Amino acid sequence: TFGRYDAEAAMLCYGIFDLLMIQTGLLVGAAWPYWCALLLVVYWQWQHYQEIQGRDRSACLRVFLDNNKTGWLWFTAIAAHFALV
What we know:
Elements: H1 6-28, H2 32-52, H3 57-84
Helix pairs in contact: 1-2, 2-3
């Protein structure tokens, strides 16, 4: 769909998601685990971008499957926020 800009389109989606998570964190007055998770997620996203730029099918699949780690981190960070509040 995005042709040779597919990796950039994925990063755009990551960026929009990150902005929404920042806004959510600000709205709820998130505790420190939430913000630490944000930093780690952005780092992981940058690593994903580095891997998918080559457009190797196995690397892209590995990155896609690795996204569940990001979901679990956010779940844990949100739970930690509410445990601390």
